[in-house]
Amino acid sequence: MVTNSAEQEVLNELRDGVINYDEDSVREAAKKALDLNIAAKQAIFDGLIPGMVEVGRLYEEQEYFVPEILMGADALYAGLDILKPHIEDEDMSIKGTVIMGVVQGDVHDIGKNIVKMMFSVAGFEVHDLGRDVPLEKFVEEQLRTDSEMLCLSAMMTTTMVGMQEIIKKVKDKNPQCKIMIGGAPVSEDLAEKWGADGFAKDADNALKEAIKMIESLRHL
Q1: If DSSP codes are grouped into helix, strand and coil, which group holds residue 13?
Q2: Quick one: pLDDT at residue 108?
Q3: Could you name the CATH architecture of 5-90?
Q4: Residue-wise DSSP of 38-99
Q5: Is the pLDDT of residue 91 over 70?
Q6: Residue 184 has what DSSP assignment?
Q7: 185-219 pLDDT per residue, tens
Q8: Average pLDDT over residues 26-35
């Protein structure tokens, strides 16, 4: 936990560096974080990731566009390159395997990409199918990898309806697989109605839900 203003200042520098897509600033802040003995994982989750989440928000508000998203991601990865080797060994054990993608007909993948980053950093093995993914592809990949979790994303009401079919097909073939859905038009009520195990309103929530779901599987 942050205990003083110097540590908070460095976390703010990491966040702002990503938002301003300033790779040099992020590298400098990442080194400062290590010098101050801020845990690498905390620097990532309380500094870099909030910066990328804000970049995603600015994109949705049409203040940022694709080039800014890509430059923000480059700045984030510049920080990750320095911090990731310092994450404690026990934190790096694989927490579970996740398949994720944006459903067929939908090409909005910024939210999914932020979730993917968070899952990777948290120690999940992520199989990213990308965007505009055919419904059958989700089912095939889940069975092929025997992943514990499937994450479906949609940003349009016209494409989200495909989630229901994917959920049913995966659950028919592998009832143990946990399925989480997310995206602007999706709700907790829809998740329940369609038989999903969880709903994520944002990237942070998605990660917490994923950890809870996989822990529940391990207890079975």
Answers
A1: helix
A2: 85
A3: Orthogonal Bundle (1.10)
A4: --HHHHIIIIIHHHHHHHHHHHHTTSS-HHHHHHHHHHHHHHHHHHGGGS-GGGGS---EEE
A5: no
A6: T
A7: 999 999 999 999 999 887 777 877 887 887 777 76
A8: 97
Listed by start position, the domains of the chain span 5-90, 93-218
Distances (CA, A) of 51 to 40, 133, 167, 215, 216: 16, 28, 32, 28, 31
Rounded CA gap, 59 and 179, in Å? 27
Q: How far apart are the first and last CA of the chain?
A: 32
What's residue 90's pLDDT? 47
Give me the sheet containing 125-128, strands edge to edge. Answer: 125-128, 97-102, 149-153, 178-182, 198-200
Tokens representing 120? 């990777």
| CA distances from residue 33 to 16, 19, 75 in whole angstroms, order as listed | 14, 18, 16
Give the model's pLDDT for residue 53: 82
* pTM summary value: 0.76
The strand pairing partners of 216, in sequence order, are none
Query: For 93-218, CATH number?
Result: 3.40.50.280
Angle at 215 between CA 184 and CA 204, to 5 degrees: 30
Q: Which two tokens stand for residue 171?
A: 């659950």
